Automatic annotation (TrEMBL):
Protein name per the record: Isopentenyl phosphate kinase
Lineage: superkingdom: Eukaryota
Lineage of the species this protein comes from: Eukaryota, Viridiplantae, Streptophyta, Embryophyta, Tracheophyta
Annotated organism of origin: Camelina sativa
Pfam family, one: AA_kinase
Family, as annotated: Belongs to the isopentenyl phosphate kinase family.
Gene name linked to the record: LOC104756878
Amino acid sequence: MELNLQESERRSIRCIVKLGGAAITCKNELEKIHDENLEIVACQLRQAMMEGSAPSKVIGMDWSKRPGSSEIACDVDVLGDQESSEFSKFVVVHGAGSFGHFQASRSGVHKGGLEKPIVKAGFVATRISVTNLNLEIVRALAREGIPTIGMSPFACGWSTSKRDVASADLSVVAKTIDSGFVPVLHGDAVLDNILGCTILSGDVIIRHLADHLKPEYVVFLTDVLGVYDRPPSEPDAVLLKEISVGQDGSWKVVNPVLEHTVDYSVVAHDTTGGMETKISEAAMIAKLGIDVYIVKAATAHSQRALSGDLRDNVPADWFGTIIRFSK
């Protein structure tokens, strides 16, 4: 697998954050962003990233017109007197939610076969949808004063071989971070050496970024409190507070102790594998010695996870799932 990242280019990354598609979009409503959640997530990210005291005024970086507005919000005059804000190094990856999944599943992009007109059209349609979402997330974070740069895996040279990452030019990500920006990547339609094309999920992207950038911790923001032993909508669903990962990558629930197996269900139009894929990828990250937190977005619990407050002590009133390596 070609990753194009020299040892000297590895940087001290504090956190990689996954914005789950179900948390930042209305997943049952085609291409609709959950504006309230995204706004809170952006604010929490800014608070977690700031080193020292944050300036009293947020200087927005989105100087483009917004729908329904006739003016551009631009704080150039204020910026002239503003001291440079120091952000700790974060990387953001987001899922597609109600963007992209519909187009991909209807055309079969995740199964490959670019020689088919429907697949080629779906490939284009999927990328239009997910890059539109990426732009809106970049804009939301930029309005909070976070210097975000949208980075599409397809355009940055990511490709797969039978859905496994075959090539990824991580030097672009490293240079972006070193220049003081926050890369914002996303699940994407990419070329596949064997299948022709497929869908590269945000969860897989995070695992490869974690493997080579070695962040201090990883946070998955979702639309539920964490990982449950069955779909959380079912009666008596139990929140799994801690999952332990062994040397061989296998994992088991250690808190609470369960006497039954964990059940998963995948939404019909989800082409990326759902919760089972998320846990498998998180377990591979934890195996590297990197703690993973899966927590509900836009809550006090997510703020604690993003700020790194849980690494030394997990308070009893924190609700989420920790996945960590069992030494």
